[in-house]
Amino acid sequence: MRIKELREAMGLTRVQLADSLGVTVVAVRKWETGLAMPNADKLPVLADALHCTIDALYGRGSHPDIPDAS
Questions:
Q1: Which of 13, 18, 46, 62 is deepest in the core (most CB within 10 A)?
Q2: Which residues pair with 63 in a beta bridge?
Q3: DSSP state of 69
């Protein structure tokens, strides 16, 4: 997942992202490092917080500030 790239492109800290999603900073760190994946019910909220699509979280869509992974 491209959470870290997208978060940094938005200028958000892990704390800010975690607070906006109602999760812990540890959860965000695990998502960013691949140790865990967000629950499916968090994906729409996560995409909204990062101003992208759910596909973009997986590197399949586009984000204006991040080149496609393909």
A1: 46
A2: 66
A3: -
Task: Using the structure block, give the residue that is written with the tokens 């975690």.
Answer: 18
DSSP calls for 4-66? HHHHHHHT--HHHHHHHHT--HHHHHHHHHTS----GGGHHHHHHHTTS-HHHHTTSS-BTTB
All domains of the chain in start order, with CATH:
3-57 (1.10.260.40)
| Per-block mean pLDDT, blocks of 10 residues, the chain (70 long) | 95 98 98 97 97 92 55
pTM, whole model, 2 decimals?
Answer: 0.83
- The sign of the torsion formed by the CA atoms of 21, 23, 29, 34 equals negative
Which tokens is 20 given? 């906006």
